[in-house]
Design goal:
622 residues; alpha/beta; Rossmann fold; 3 domains; 5-stranded mixed β-barrel; 5-stranded parallel β-sheet; 20 strands; disordered N terminus
Length: 622
């Protein structure tokens, strides 16, 4: 749910819950799943906040000053909350309102904006549009269980379901307590509810308005229903947060950035920033901006690899003391996982990325990654471009200001009228953006797929970025996956002195055992080779013993057995004469002449290219 509260900051809260009345704030506080300690007050901030967790979302509850109502005070507090809590994604304006009886709205019901909007009477205010237009629970909201726990809030019967209405809410600076005026406006515009704060909020904060009906906006106004109506509105807000995934909220733009998109480049609407930093609203991104950096879809590659992970595998890496020291304890800035070709390093990398996303000790620290692949001629230019794009996306979503140099470089090389960057330009841009986002975690898989000079250049770059302070890593962190040695005999340790190393050689055997068992079981369903269970067990054991820690070798042997063996005797012969290593496997394939094996060999050449691009070229010439 929440991370340790001792390290909470204003940047850790993503949802604002704004109230106008003390009774509304009390209802909101009562429905928090967890109350968090107060944060230190910021300079010139006289507002009172309550901090908590609701269905996994970190929520800050703010209230208008006592006795103050209307759109203008709401606008002021919306602006202040947005500035004080820069990571807020959206707000909920939760409280009471006056309902329109002729529209079927009853005391204690909840009204929230629907999918249409219209202009209301001049002087009264404007109607509001909901960012989510579909009714929950078929138009009725089951809050009975919540209300029963807080029966003291009103005299209403909790046996009746709370009605939920979706439509227009009129908001303005005047109190509506005239039945004739209410009906006139409601009939003309289809109004369901009247209130006094939402219009001021909407211009300064992306938010959803939720109103519990405490009266009928007529001369019979009383406060008897305020407690109950506050609670029904708060219950709706709580249940709404229950169906919004926390990761979806983190992936949406911040409230500040949402407003920048609405107001375009009008810098007069933004707060002044210190020199050296550039406001988002003065840095115009068109739709093709990110695509001009690179069209490489790093997330798609990651998801494809993540789906290949078999249940129960790669856990050894997450539990490894060196990984825990690097990830959880920040004992050092970089970590290296080495292994033979085909030993499952890419799947381990995907697992590490998912683990870092789930358990990041810094909620707003990005996980930046790249999978190098010789088959697609990955090079340093593609790698740096992808890292630059991911950092840029992160800065945009966080509504974090770009440094002046960062903005100039991005506009120069990726703007609408751009220069084509060379590798030096890309390295400079990456260095600037990585300084702007100094807490990023980088995961680079398949570093040995790069040319030796490119790999050396990248490691040298990271050596200057990642550093230690005392016994802790400070700044960015780096996790590398590669073979033990590059072409030419050098290794990661050559360029990153004293880098901690985890080898897959002996650690992956249990994972390979799972892989062999699952692969053979799948093959037997599609194409049964034998009904001899003992032979199947022998196959599993022999493949494991001869695998030398390489998933790819195992995969190729299973392919060959299923393509070439028609009898149990042929299976036994194949198991007794398994090739040693990948190169011998490829050479055997080259010697086979018939069409079926030729097709298989072509399939294997794709994997051979992962082993060595030069071998592939030579083999194809043969």
């Amino acid at each position: 749910m929440s991370s340790p509260t001792s390290s909470l900051r204003h940047e850790d809260f993503t949802v604002a819950w704004i109230c106008a009345l003390p009774v509304e704030m009390a209802a909101a506080e009562a429905l928090l799943d967890e109350r968090l300690p107060d944060l230190p007050a910021q300079p010139h901030d006289n507002n009172t906040y309550t901090f908590g967790v609701c269905h996994g979302h970190r929520v800050v509850i703010a209230s208008l000053p006592s006795g103050v109502y209307g759109t203008n005070p709401a606008a002021v507090i919306a602006t202040e909350v947005r500035i004080r809590f820069p990571s807020l994604r959206f707000g909920l304006m939760v409280g009471v309102g006056g309902g329109v009886r002729d529209a079927g709205v009853r005391l204690g019901d909840v009204v929230t904006p629907g999918s249409t909007s219209a202009k209301a009477e001049s002087g009264l205010g404007v109607s509001l549009k909901s960012p989510c237009g579909k009714p929950l629970y078929g138009g009725y909201f089951s809050v009975s269980a919540i209300i029963r726990r807080y029966a003291k809030w009103g005299n209403a019967s909790v046996e009746q379901p709370c009605g939920i209405h979706y439509g227009l809410i009129a908001s303005g600076n005047m109190v509506v307590k005239d039945g004739k005026l209410r009906d006139k406006i409601a009939k003309k515009y289809g109004i369901l509810c009247f209130e006094m704060e939402a219009a001021g909020l909407m211009d300064n904060f992306p938010c959803l308005v939720i109103r519990g009906i405490c009266d009928y906006a007529d001369t019979h106004k009383k406060k008897d229903w305020q407690g109950y109506a506050s609670l029904t509105a708060a219950a709706y807000a709580k249940e709404l947060l229950a169906v919004i995934p926390t990761h979806s909220v983190l992936e949406t733009p911040t409230a500040a950035l949402s407003l920048d998109w609405q107001i375009g480049n009008d810098s007069s609407r933004r707060e002044p920033l210190s020199s050296g930093w550039v406001s988002k609203s003065r840095f115009a991104f068109d739709d093709d901006f990110l695509a001009r950096i690179t069209r490489y879809d790093h997330e798609r590659v990651h998801q494809r690899l993540s789906r290949k992970r078999l249940l129960g595998t790669t856990q050894w890496f997450l539990d490894h003391p060196e990984f825990q020291a690097w990830f959880s304890n920040r004992a050092y800035p970089w970590l290296w996982c080495s292994g033979k070709i085909g030993s499952g390093k890419s799947i381990i990398a995907a697992t590490a990325i998912e683990e870092a996303r789930r358990k990041s000790l810094q909620p707003h620290a990005p996980i930046i990654f790249f999978y190098c692949d010789v088959q697609y001629d990955s090079d340093l230019s593609q790698l740096l471009s992808s890292l630059i794009r991911q950092l840029t996306e992160f800065i945009i979503k966080r509504a974090q200001p770009f440094s002046e140099n960062g903005q100039k470089m991005l506009q120069r090389y990726f703007g609408s009228e751009r220069e084509v960057p060379d590798i030096d330009d890309l390295e400079d841009i990456f260095a600037i953006l990585s300084s702007d986002v100094s807490n990023a975690t980088y995961v680079i898989d398949g570093l040995d797929a790069l040319e030796q000079a490119d790999a050396r250049r990248l490691l040298t770059c990271f050596r200057s970025l990642c550093r230690t302070g005392g016994d802790k890593a400070i700044g960015p962190r780096l996790l590398i996956f590669s073979r033990e040695y590059f072409v030419g005999g050098t290794s990661v340790a050559t360029y990153l002195p004293k880098v901690p190393q985890i080898s897959t050689t002996y650690n992956v055997l249990q994972d390979i055992q799972v892989y062999i068992r699952e692969s053979i079981a799948d093959r037997m369903v599609l194409q049964p080779l034998t009904e001899d269970n003992r032979l199947i067990r022998d196959m599993e054991n022999i493949l494991l013993q001869e695998s030398s820690g390489m998933f790819l070798w195992v995969y190729l042997q299973i392919e060959v057995i299923w393509y070439t063996c028609a009898t149990e005797q042929e299976i036994r012969v194949a198991l007794a004469t398994l090739p040693k290593g990948l190169e011998e496997t490829y050479q055997r394939c080259l010697k086979r002449i018939n069409v079926t094996i030729f097709v298989l060999s072509e399939h294997l050449f794709g994997f051979a290219s992962v082993h060595d691009r030069f071998i592939v070229k030579n083999c194809r010439r043969q």
